[in-house]
Amino acid sequence: MVDLIEKSAFSGAELPFVAGGLTLDEAPIDALWSVSPYAGAQVPLDLQVGRCGQNTIWAGADMWFTTQAPPDLTGIAAVTEQGDGWVALDLTGDGWGHVLARICPVDPMLISQGVCVRTDLGHMFALIIGLGRGVRIMGMRSFAHSLHHELVEAMQSQAARQRM
Amino acid sequence: MRVETGGNRLNRDRAVRFTLNGVSRAGLAGDTLSAALLADGQVLQGRSFKYHRPRGPVTAGSEEPNALFTLGQGGAQMPNMRGTTQEIFDGLQAATQNHVGSLRHDAMAVNDLFSRFLSAGFYYKTFMWPRAFWERVYEPIIRAAAGLGALSGEDSVERYDRAWAHCDLLIIGSGPAGLMAALTAGRRGERVLLVEEDMRLGGRLDAESFAIGDDTGAVWAAGIAAELASLPNVRVMTRTTVTGAYDGGTYGAYERVGEHLGTIPDGAPRGCFWRIVAGRAILAGGAHERMIGFPNNDRPGIMQASAVRAYLHRYGVAPARRIAVFGNNDNAWRTVTDLQAAGVEVTALIDTRDGVTPTVDCPVYTGAQVVETRGRLGLRNLDVRDANGVHRVEAECLAVSGGWNPSVHLTCHMNGRPIWRDDIAAFVSVAGSVPNLQAIGAANGDFSTAAALRAGVEAGGGGEVPKAEDGPVNITPFWHVTGVKGRQWLDFQNDVTVKDVTLAHRENFRSVEHMKRYTTLGMATDQGKLSNVGGLAVLAELAGREIPDVGTTTFRPPYTPVPVAALAGRTARGQFQPHRLTPSDGLSRERNASFVEAGQWHRAAWFPEGEETTWKQSADREVGWVRNAVGVCDVTTLGKIDVQGPDAVRLLDLIYAGKMSTLKPGKVRYGLMLREDGLVMDDGTCARLGDDRYVITTTTAAAGEVMAHVEFCTQALHPEWQVSAVSVTDQWAQFAVAGPQSSALLQGLLGHELTDAEWPFMGCGPVQIGGVAGRLFRISFSGEMAYEIAVPARYGDALARELTARAQALGGGLYGMEALNILRVEKGFITHAEIDGRISADDLGMGRMVSPSKDCIGKVMSQRDGLHGPQRKQLVGLRAVGEGRLLSGAHLFDVGVEPAPDADWGHVSSACVSPSLGAIALGFVVNGRARHGEQIRALDLLRGNDVICEICDPVFMDPEGGRMRG
């Protein structure tokens, strides 16, 4: 009987990474589903635009992610598994906004706890969720190492500038 | 020379050692390079662009045209750095520019003797004969002589950041106006970003002897800076120049992070390019003092009066022992008193205006002009002409003031034009030229300190204004001396004189835009900050018009030079674009695969084994494995879009040329997508996984484009449809398993049979791989019996290894893109090499795939005349006759006929050397389908390729498809 083993998309990347008082670490995604309500449909989930709801994350136009298996939504919404398609890194610590400002055009002051922003991160698209003490940066799996590299480089630059 | 007073930027106790042209020199901490050299008595700091005339600094700021240096060496070499803003540090390596031989003995100074032949536009009138000399003789000489500083040619070792900053209020410049605006708004709680070009806040406050209240300007500014630093809602950036105004309240700015330091910490950038997004912005960037035109007005030692004061107050430097002052306004007079207070001899104050009574204690000439200067390597003396005749004045420095130009540039970056004010003889900006950008203080023509403070307070929201001088602007315009011989410089950096502007006008280049290009006035690295208005004034005179009628040229970013590397930031070299890695990437690297880039993806191109040394050996072996045993290939990169909903089938029928509504669950169909113009956009497969659930695939590099297209259809064309599409490309790791042993391999993996009945050709469905739920598709891009198997991507690496091990056990293994390409060319399967945006379905021989019984995007346009018939280039196979291989990109001509553009019958789109079939290719030939069996010539003159080939069916092997259909 074949036993396939899981492998993290960040395998080989230095994590957690610490620099200048900030920490970058993987936030493993066990399971994730996308929920896209059809036109005019009502979905029995806590769906808020631009914010996290109960077990839900706003992921863009007419789309949410949910971390718990959704009920049967046939005819109401499109549901796909996304737990392998997306990866997440948490950037936390004082001054995380300065690091994010190097690679993302969104005003860090707007990304307070629970806010979800779909934006650019160094030529990759990303979903950024405010954690209060930092941000959770979600990107597509194939970009994992580039995502990590961009963030590490920005952290190193900021840490080095603090020493100047 | 250094004087004892002044020097408010210096630490006189700390010497700094640097080198100039390899010779060790010294200055004081706080000096700029030019200040340190002036302190040392060196006023000669460069050579002019065209005539190689000796030059010295004219300014103390970023508008400097002359004192340009090359700093650093090798990968750190930076040309055209302004000595007037470069802070010195221990170990700084500086070199003067633009001379052959030493700075004092520049061999190219001979150009000055030939100045008659090198005036504006000379290259349109000379170097014409003999014709052959242009490329071989003249151009190399001109090329070697052109330019000022030089690059090293080595890859830059420095790194740059880019970053965004956000604020409610952006304040550009921290002189009295900017500081008061920042303080006022900051105390009110606004989110303020104050950006200052210089190394500390205060603008010209530390360059003048004005007081504010009871403090010197410098002390007052330091106090404000301290309070600003204490306000959490105020952010201050120094050494940062705002370079441009852009849409949406966005401003570009370049920050010199490490340019003033000998070493910077590992990982720190040398500079940072900022994009600042501001709710509103205030331009408090001050003004630039103008020079005046007079014969030989470019000698070292002739500088702005405000620069002389700046060197005195900031750096404790007097450019010479004896200084004269020449101006057309009251503001110039304070130069005399400031210098005398420092113990410097002032030999004359020369004022162009009649009837003024300067309150100074030195020889005064009114209604007077400077008409000649002397001193080749530095000013020695000058001639002054007034009503009483010509007088000689001894001076090694001449402080000139022709008035002030408000720094309007940013306000004109969106094609705005400034307006002329006669009372200050200067241009000011028009409110609203850039939305939400307001110019205040000297930048708005309010030159007194009190006026600037007042404007700052008002702009910041109102409050008390500190007391300061409020001197009126008394100026009489005076642009250049007339009735004298001798060249008068307008643009120092590009060596443009009044004579050049006159010449341009005489040759009928009369508009200001033409004059600029013909003479190159204002086109150097200083962008005409000191020369533009003077040039306009001359042009106005010649045309008999007023200056405002002549107008200005367009102002464009950047305001001062920005390293291109800073615009790239970290997205350079290997990081130019992100890298998308496949689930089998780790395995491929272990196998020493070579990679090819497809869009942002890295795909294994071939896997070398054993004694193989060339890619062809590996690819041929891999092709053999697929045709004779079994091969495994990672196809994760192809776009996968999940389409769901009651109206999914309507969406699919809309975007596909063929009918998808008849597709049954568990089946896969190949389809073409057309563009709105009727040409083919992409090809791929559509698999029906359930009642209302489909997965469509796209070509790797077009995945984003197709996704955008699908989004457009669902959001814009039919927002009322109950359908949703989402990318699942990264969600599923997918592998092709292809070859006669493919079924055997998968049966072993899955633990059950794969019968034709349950898994027919073009069928699909769920499978379990151990405990993992996956998907299986029986489709083939190789032409062999084949499948694609998909699992959630976290298991991709494990599945790749499992499949590879099982393939090896069956006499096969991994295959890469090179082999894949050979396999598909052998079978006539198309890729975007064929679908290049000019091709219709009928060109591909797939005209019948456009369903006649339904509409689709592109259907109507695809039926246009001209997209059908024998005049079209149609897909064919090409087989080389005799020796030689075909190259994609070669064009096709009749055999035995002289090739000509109007006898070009088509081109080769994909070519390979098949291990079994030899040199074959796919291509497009006019009326190709009717020409099978004919010979044609494939010609690629760029690569010296000339091969006769036979036109044939594009499917070279197994035309019935029996091997894959089973």
Automatic annotation (TrEMBL), chain A:
InterPro entries in alphabetical order: TrmE/GcvT-like (IPR027266)
Protein name: Sarcosine oxidase, gamma subunit family
Species classification: Bacteria, Pseudomonadati, Pseudomonadota, Alphaproteobacteria, Rhodobacterales
Automatic annotation (TrEMBL), chain B:
Residue span(s) of domain SoxA A3: 485-570
Residue ranges annotated for the Aminomethyltransferase C-terminal domain, each copy included: 873-958
InterPro entries (UniProt xref): 2Fe-2S-bd_N, FAD/NAD-bd_sf, GcvT/YgfZ/DmdA, GcvT/YgfZ_C, GcvT_C, GCVT_N, Sarcosine_oxidase_asu, SoxA_A3
Record-linked Gene3D superfamilies: 2Fe-2S iron-sulphur cluster binding domain, sarcosine oxidase, alpha subunit, N-terminal domain (3.10.20.440), FAD/NAD(P)-binding domain (3.50.50.60), Probable tRNA modification gtpase trme, domain 1 (3.30.1360.120)
GO process annotations (BP): tetrahydrofolate metabolic process
GO MF, one example: sarcosine oxidase activity
Sequence ranges assigned to domain GCVT N-terminal in this UniProt record: 589-853
Keyword Glycoprotein applies: no
Record-given protein name: Sarcosine oxidase subunit alpha
UniProt source species: Pontivivens marinum
Source taxonomy: Bacteria, Pseudomonadati, Pseudomonadota, Alphaproteobacteria, Rhodobacterales
